Structure formats: C-alpha cells, structure tokens
Amino acid sequence: MESWNTPLPALLPVQPDRLKVHDTATQSTRHPGNLAEASLYVCGITPYDATHLGHANTYVTFDLLNRYWRSCGLPVTYVQNVTDVDDPLLERAAATGVDWRELAAGQTELFRSDMEALNVLAPDHYVGATETVDWVVESVEALVANGTAYPVPGTDGEPDGDVYFSIDAAEGATDWTLGSIGRLSAAEMGEVFPERGGDPDRPGKRNPLDPLLWRVARPGEPTWDGGTLGAGRPGWHIECSAIARRLLPAPFTVQGGGSDLRFPHHEFSAAHATAGDGKPLARAFVHAGMVGLDGEKMSKSLGNLVLVSNLLRQGAEAAAIRTALLSNHYRSDWEWTPALLERSARRLARWRQALATEEAGDGVAVLGAVHRALSADLDAPAALEELDRWAERAAARPAVEAVPEPGPDAPAVRTVVGGLLGIAL
Ligand code: ZN
Q: Residue 364 Cα, ligand 1 centroid: separation in angstroms?
C-alpha cells in the first residue's frame, strides 16, 4: 500500500556500528550480530483510531534505530504492516455505521500524515493484511501439513474449521518454547491473553493459549479464498510472520513494537515462523515502553488518548513533540504532560539560537557525542543532553560574522541533529 514521504537524512561521515540494544528474548543488551546490512520489522497499526502518542513513541523509537544504521552506511530494509482487517476494526466500523474499508483507509491516511509530520522515515515496504492473504494461507497450510496447526470443530454459534496453532506441537518440533520470546511468566500470559485478542475459552482448542491462525467465514464478515483452509480471514500473529518471511531475511535483525506486543503477538509471530522453517524470526526483539496519561497507559480501549493530529491542530510544533518523545528513554514507561511539551519547545528554541554561534568542528563533535549515546541502547535522553551542553557552550560565545561552511566531512550541527535524531532545527 502507499507509504509516506519523508526526506532521507543527509549522508554523515560514517560512524562505526557499535549499537547495542536490549533484546527481550535473551534479556540482555547486546549487538544484534555483525551486520553487512540491517533489516527491521515494526508492527503497524490497526487503523480504527488515530495515531496517539503511544504509537508515535514506538515509531519514533525505531526511526532512531533506522537512522542510526543508515548513518553507519548500512543498507536497511524496513517493513511495516497495517492490520487493515481484524476484530477491533470490524467492531468499530459496525458500531459507527461506517464501511470497514473506508474506516481503515481514512485512519491509515491520518497515520501517514502524522508520521510525515514527525519526520519518521517511511518503511521500504508498507503492506496491508488485506494485500497479503495469499502469503498467510500458504504459511497456515504449511503449518497444518507439518502438524503444528489444527482445525477446531464447530460449536454453538461457531462454524467448523477455524485453524489454531498448537503450542504443544511446536514446542515438540522446534527450539521455541512458550515464553521464550516475550519472557512473561505463565501467570502473566494467562492474564493478558484474553485482554489482547486471545480466546482461551474456545471449546475444542488443545491448549487454552493456542492462538488463531485462520478464521473461517462468518455471515457479514469479509472473507478471502483460503485454499484448502476454506474461505475466511487471517489471524493477527501469522500476518506479521508471513509478511516478514516474504520480505526480509530469516532471521532478520530487529523485530520492534510496543511492550504490549511482547505477548501474545511477538511470542506467536516468532513461533509461527520457526514452526514453518526451523529458523528464528529475528536476531533481537526490541520493545518500546508505554506512554501514560493521568496514571493510566494510553490506549484505544481506555479512551484516554492524546492524538498527534490534535496536538498539531492546537499549534504544537511537530519537532517539539518529537523532542518530548525522545527525552524519555524508549524502554521506560512514562507520563505525557503538557508541561513536557512546553519544556521541549523551549529546549528546541535554545538549540536553534545556538546555531547562530556555531563554530567549525561543532558538528563533528556533536555527531561523535550523539552517536556514542545512541550506541548504548538508543539513549536518546543522553543524546539530547549532549545537545544542551553544546548549546550552552555555543551560547557563551560572542556572535560570529559567518557561520562555518559545512562539508561532507564537517557537517553542520543542523545536519547531524536532523539526520541522527530526526529533529529539524
Ligand atoms: Zn506484528
């Protein structure tokens, strides 16, 4: 599907790839492999409501990673999906009397414009679930054939033939074990599974936590040709698994998303891929923290959303929103406040003022400092503090007649900050 347009960052003097990120699966902060190229999959939105700051925080986090790799001269392949058919989307469409396709198209368009405003680099492949049903069907058929997926018989009100993934069969056939990706305890998994789309009480399942792979046709629901599975629509986790396997190496470098995707989503996307071909899904599973408002996680279901589009309409500058997001470490859970946005706007103004007294060599120094901070598990708050220190030094200088001439080996501070941090000064 159509992606969005963000200018690619200017080339910076190449910095070595020293990046260490926190991998949820191994619970360690480490280099995700010696890379000649990098590949990234970040789970996209289910387009039934506009981009809130929790989403923005996740996509800006992985934009930092994308920019870091590019600045190291690594070719990057970045894939993001749009879950443009799923229960919450269909439920919202039915409740508001809007066609589900129109709802999805409108909300996806709003997401694209929010990403463009926040200067998030566009993915190389932006793919909708509805565009990749054939890939899912092929993947599910392969899992049925190798015994890690099974059809569930119909019961009261449910038709015959929904296909589920067998946790127990996959554990017997692969290195994957339940919990090895998301690292949640059995009790935590049992608690969040029904909250995040799971159906533990569905009769006929072998294990209550087995996730849905293929939902056969129901009256009034959109359906696609499912080959030997029968007409129906894809489950959520297999969608990302099938898309990643088609468009990225196996394993790819980093699987990203919000920490609420640790389980069941990333746990099972990874399990489906491994059950299919025996290889891990990704080298590292990286998770961004949750943004809260008034003591609660910001979420569609709670309805306590601060929307990027609303902040922009109220006159907030996109660069200030981005600065506010980056002033919190990506792995922390934190609270959004209007005061944070005001502080970030003042900070941005100080950096811009300091450009007037920039000296030759400042850009290279800022590049080194920002690169060092980001290398340590994408420590954006430390990178911004480096900018504060530079701005303080620059502000103490007398006004200069001519700003230094930037060159490929001596980039201006504005180029470095725009390139690595995506903040337009
Ligand atoms: Zn996903």
A: 37
Ligand 1 centre to CA of 43 (Å) is 4
What's the Cα-to-Cα distance from 276 to each of 26, 142, 165, 335, 339, rounded to whole Å?
Answer: 22, 7, 11, 40, 49
Q: Which residue has the tokens 């929010």?
A: 114
Q: Ligand 1 centroid vs 366 CA: distance in angstroms?
A: 35
255 CA → ligand 1 middle, Å: 9
Q: What tokens appear for 34 in the block?
A: 């010696």
What are the residues whose beta carbon lies below 5 Å from ligand 1 (ion)?
A: 43, 240
Whether the Cβ atoms of residue 123 and residue 1 lie closer than 8 Å to each other: no
**Higher pLDDT, residue 11 or 131:** 131
Proportion of the chain in helix, strand, coil states, percent, rounded to 5: 45, 15, 40
The pair phi, psi for residue 166, each rounded to 5°, is -95, 110
- 348 contacts: CB under 8 Å, gap ≥ 6: 317, 319, 320, 323, 423, 425
∠ CA(345), CA(347), CA(351), 5° rounding? Answer: 115
Tokens of 161: 């033939």
263 within 8 A of 188, measured Cβ to Cβ: yes
pTM, 2 dp: 0.96
Is the model's pLDDT at 404 over the cut of 70? no
302 — pLDDT class (breaks 50, 70, 90): confident
Residue 254 Cα to ligand 1 middle (Å): 12
pLDDT (tens digit, 9 = 90+) per residue, 124-175? 999 999 999 999 999 999 999 999 999 999 988 889 999 999 999 999 999 9
- 125: CA distance to ligand 1 center in Å? 14
Residue range 46-105, pLDDT digits in tens? 999 878 999 999 999 999 999 999 999 999 999 999 999 999 999 999 999 999 999 999
CA of 339 to the centre of ligand 1 (A): 33
Do 424 and 6 contact (CB within 8 A), yes or no?
Answer: no
Among 110, 95, 100, 96, which Cα is nearest to 45's?
110
Alpha carbon dihedral 270, 272, 273, 275, in 10-degree steps, equals 120
DSSP state, 257? E
Question: In this structure, how many other beta carbons lie within 10 angstroms of the beta carbon of residue 172?
Answer: 10
Q: Mean pLDDT over residues 20-49, rounded?
A: 94
pLDDT at 402: 64
Instruction: Give the model's pLDDT for residue 102.
Output: 95
pLDDT at 401 over 70: no
